[in-house]
Specification:
The chain is an alpha/beta fold. The chain has helices spanning 12-21, 33-52, 58-66, 74-78, and strands at residues 2-6, 25-29, 68-71. Helix 1 crosses helix 2 (33-52), helix 1 (12-21) crosses helix 3 and helix 2 packs antiparallel against helix 3 (58-66).
Length: 84
């Protein structure tokens, strides 16, 4: 499944992370690049904590992180987002 997550803030980055961990491609959109950057930093930190706790392997962390793509463009975020 390909998902669009609108907003990289308190809830958005967590939704994107969880979806990516479960194998979904995610396009995360926000209105400023700094918000997207902060969201991705939070995701990397959170995935790192899961690795530290041996809840996921480092390769699973990288695979999940690689499934998350960012954009400032709402139309781009929603393009090709559909349930499989």
């Amino acid at each position: 499944m390909r998902l669009a997550v609108i907003g990289a803030g308190e809830m958005g980055h967590g939704i994107a992370e969880l979806a990516a961990l479960h194998g979904h491609e995610v396009r995360m959109r926000d209105i400023k690049q700094e918000f997207l950057d902060r969201g991705m930093e939070r995701i990397r930190w959170s995935l790192g904590k899961l690795v530290e706790k041996n809840q996921i392997r480092p390769d699973q962390m990288q695979e999940a992180f690689d499934r998350i793509h960012t954009t400032l463009d709402l139309a781009e975020a929603c393009r090709n987002a559909w349930p499989s």
